[in-house]
Amino acid sequence: MKRCSWVPKGNHQYEAYHDLEWGKPLTDDRALFELLCLETYQAGLSWATVLKKRQAFRQVFHNYEIASVGQMGAQDLANALENPQIIRHKQKLQATITNAKAVQIIQQERGSFANYLWEFVGGEVIMNRVDAQHPVPAQIQLSQQLAKDLKKRGFAFVGPTTVYAFLEAAGFVNDHEVDCDFR
Questions:
Q1: Alpha carbon 2 to chain centroid, angstroms
Q2: How far apart are CA 23 and CA 21, in angstroms?
Q3: pLDDT tens digit string along 25-42?
């Protein structure tokens, strides 16, 4: 099967992520929150590093159950910073807790985090043409708008580049290459 050119050949974890998850439209708040967190951890690092540490992150952050993460405190953060199985970046880990609290407020206002996010794309997946002549941008106007709104709502580590990667991963934007069998 033909995959997007960014997927390293022979890296089974990466291939599985691409084939089974990346770009699939999500409506589950827990799954959306997890992907947003993973994208924040990835800032400045490789996605392969994040994927390798994903299970450990799930353990530390209660499988990304939003209410449980939102209740984590200073001692939980201190314990996470001692865990060598995750990326121990204090601001990114604190952002996970901060963002869980912000997601809960959105859930109260909009019924779900998914409802809020899908409003930004009018409920429809944005289908892009990605090939050699049309490479994937680092960010777009949509990711700039969403990042701005998320920050206004108290989210952390959600710049427009991180948000664009999240929009792709969560299926709001389809950036599979045109010759990818998973498009």
A1: 24
A2: 6
A3: 999 999 999 999 999 999
CA 143/CA 181 separation, integer angstroms: 26
pTM equals: 0.96
Q: Is there a contact between 77 and 96 (Cβ–Cβ < 8 Å)?
A: no
The pair of structure tokens assigned to 26 is 């999500």
Q: Residue 127: which region, alpha, beta or left (left: phi > 0; alpha: psi -120 to 50)? A: beta
Q: pLDDT, tens digit, for every residue of 105-163?
A: 999 999 999 999 999 999 999 999 998 889 898 999 999 999 999 999 999 999 999 99
Q: Which residue has the tokens 């699939």?
A: 24
Q: Which residues pair with 174 in a beta bridge?
A: 127
3-state SS, residue 50: helix
HEC sequence for 122-168: CCCCEECCEECCECCCCCCHHHHHHHHHHHHCCCCCCCHHHHHHHHH
Contacts of 65 (CB under 8 A, 6+ apart): 30
Distance between alpha carbon 142 and the CA centroid of its chain, in Å? 15
**Residue numbers annotated as active site:** 17, 39, 47
Q: Both tokens of residue 139? A: 């960010």
Written as one string, the DSSP assignment of 73-119 is -HHHHHHHHT-TTS---HHHHHHHHHHHHHHHHHHHHHSSHHHHHHH
